[in-house]
Each structure stands twice: as C-alpha cells, then as structure tokens.
Request: fold
Amino acid sequence: MSKSSAIFLAKSTVKAPDKEHRRKINFNIGKYNATVPQGKAQFVDMMQVRQQAKNIKWDAIEHLDKHLESFEKQITERGAKVLWAADAEEALKYIGKICKEKNCKSVVKSKSMVTEEIHLNHYLKEHGIDSVETDLGEYIQQLDGEPPYHIVTPAMHKNKEDVAKLFADKLGTPHDLTPKELTLVAREKLREKYIQAEVGVTGANFIVADIGGVAITENEGNARLSCAFPKTHIVIVGIEKVVPSMNDLALFWPLLSTYGTGQKVTVYNSIVTGPRQSNETDGPEEMYVILLDNGRTNLLKNPKTREALYCIRCGACLNACPIYKNIGGHSYDTTYSGPIGSVITPHLSGMKEYKHLSNASSLCGNCTEVCPVRINLHELLLENRHEAVESGAGSISEMLAWRLWRVASLNRFIMNAGNGSLKNWVINRTFKAWTKHRSDLDFSQKTFNELWKEKMDKKN
Ligand code: SF4
Reply:
C-alpha cells in the first residue's frame, strides 16, 4: 500500500462516521443545491450549452500548442513576460527569482488552486517572504493552518461559530462576532497588506488565446486588488485553462458561476491583458504569466484521459459525489479532491502512489451527470483503474485474487462444487480486504445449473 493510500484510508475512516462533519457539509451543499437551479434558469437549453462548452474546450485542448502560442504572442506585445514551467520546481524558481529581483518582503495572493498545487506559500515562507491569502475562505484556512477543503469553497467544512472561534484565537476578536463582523475584521487586516505587498500573485480562471488575456472571476474583489496594488503581478496558471476566443467567455463565465455557486454571473469579472500601459493610470508596472505543465501533458498524450483537461474547476462534481460528502475534502490529502481530483491526480503526481483514488468511487455517475463541460468522469475513473493494472501499479495480491476469480468463474465444475454455505465460508475468508468494510458476499444455496434445471422442469 502506498503512503498516500494509507493516509487516505486513515483519514476517511475517521471522517466517514463523523456526524458533525457530515451535518456541516450537508448544510453547505444543501444551500448550493438550492441555488444552482436559479443560475441554470438563465440558459434555455442546458444540455446544448454544456455540449457547446465541451466542444469549445475540445478545440482548446486539441490545438493547445497553437492557442498557447497565440496567447503568448498577444500578451507579450503589451509588455507581459510569459514563462513556461515544466513542473512545480521550475515555477517556484521563477517566482523566487522575480521576488528576489523586486526585493520582495510580502506577497498578496488571490485564490488559486495552482498555487496550492506547487505549495507556493510554503516556498515563500522558507524564503522569508510573508504571503497572505486575500480570499476570505482561503484567509480562514491560512489562519487555521489548513489547506483548502474544496476547490471553490475552501472553508466549506466550517460553520460561522468555527470561524468566530478561530478569529478569536488567532486575532483576539470577541468570540461572538457575526459573519458580517468577521468579514469586516478580515477586510481591515487585508487592506493593509495590499498596500505593503511588492508582488501580487493570482491564478486565472481562463487564459484567452486570441486577445492574450487573463480572465479572473471572483466575488470579493480581492483578485483585482492583488493585480492592481502591487508593482509586480505574477499570474500562475495551468496550460489547460486556455479558451480560444474572448467570445467564449460569454458562455464560460455564466456557466462557471452557475455550477460553482449558483450565481448567474460572479460579481467581479476581469480580463487582464498586460501590465500598465503608458496611457493608463493604474495597474502593475510589470506582469509575468507562468504557464504550468506539471503533469498536464501526461493527461494530454492519452486520447482517453485528455478530456479531463476540459475541467473549469467549478466544484460541482465534488458537491454531487457521495464519497466526497462522506469523507470530506481533506481525506484525499491531495490538492484536487473529489471525482476530478481522483481522475487527474494519478497523472499529475504518479499512478503508483495515487491509483487508490480511482477506487474511491461508487461509479454512480453523478459526477458526470453534473459536469458543465460533460467530462465522462466515472469512465475516466475506470480508465485509471485500467491504466494502473496495465502499468503494473496494481498489487500482486489483487492481481492473484482476480486471476483466481477468473479461473473459477469460467469453470463450470468449480462453480458447481459445494453449496452456498461452503462458498460463503471460503470466499468471505479469502477476500478479507473486501469484507472488512462491506457486508459478506452471500451466494445462492443452489448453483446456476440447479436453478436453471428447476426452471426448465417447471416449464415442461
Ligand atoms: S470535472 Fe466538471 S464538475 Fe468537476 S470541477 Fe471540473 S468542470 Fe466542474
């Protein structure tokens, strides 16, 4: 068993029976479920919209090289610098170098899963740079020393009392602050940080190939401030986030907000096309865009798994997943959790270490059902299982068990040997790993041949 698999089992074993955890998650997902139909109401034909989004992402990913080069050309012409990072280490090196050149002591950051993926905060801390999360949910998580729980709602597992207690412990505020008061405390703390920071780091929801734009969508305005206040703006983004044209945002922005939070459109939608131009009065003096691979081309090279790159990180598949709702986001111990995390993580971080995630699924297909870009998530989970076996990442005991099962189930003599009680006894003791967390298998007392014969006798 891999280390990650052991962590996953240990954490999920604790979380699954935790009723208080489940209550909070069900409450928050319940609110999400109640709002999403309002967002959907703005579309006449939801299925047609989802298919159109899938087709656009198909084009984006099939012609990824062309679109990324177009993005680079356009944004470079307006003074931004584009840096290509093969992995997390290279991306961090770029950021470290830029921060060193700017004599940077503090960074303001807006919400970005890619920065979680490369462990940017940890890196900056090691280099003596203060990095502050400016999205409220991320700020709460940073105060608590926890990674995000969910790709859209980082503090989904906390209720307002948890947050009030956290602020009281860490910031010395009264224990009984309301959500509005808590938000004002965070705002006051963060405003100072924008003014002090030499560098602002953001992610990107989309990168727009034809205009060379970075599209950022958010509800709090903190990403705008992170771009605009500091003299240097660094964008770090996965290469799959490209859309071919600015016109595509007319579809993707409302689609993402609908499936992400149930809003018709998110509050602040910005397109950044470079640093401050000579005829402009605000914005950063310098802008860098780091295009990150970090395993994405592993997904790209396999025509079957490629469609996982269509993901727009709306989080809908997490909210719909019965496994996620039971074990929670932190049990996965990965940057990307839930169904999409289980699909991409083995390709981003290693099949041998993370193949267990593909088994953390009931294969109910609810994730596929809700995905706005119609990614066949549950089939991709099966594809991962297949790849794990083909690549030899499966365990020997599992391989032997399936071989035995195959031999026995293809042999009529073995299948007919013994009655149901004997089979139950043998199988439930042999496959202990199966029965540890499931009820025992229960074979029919009669064999198939006996049942068939009885049926035929009755007919005649
Ligand atoms: S896989 Fe689909 S549902 Fe899941 S986060 Fe990505 S876009 Fe949303």
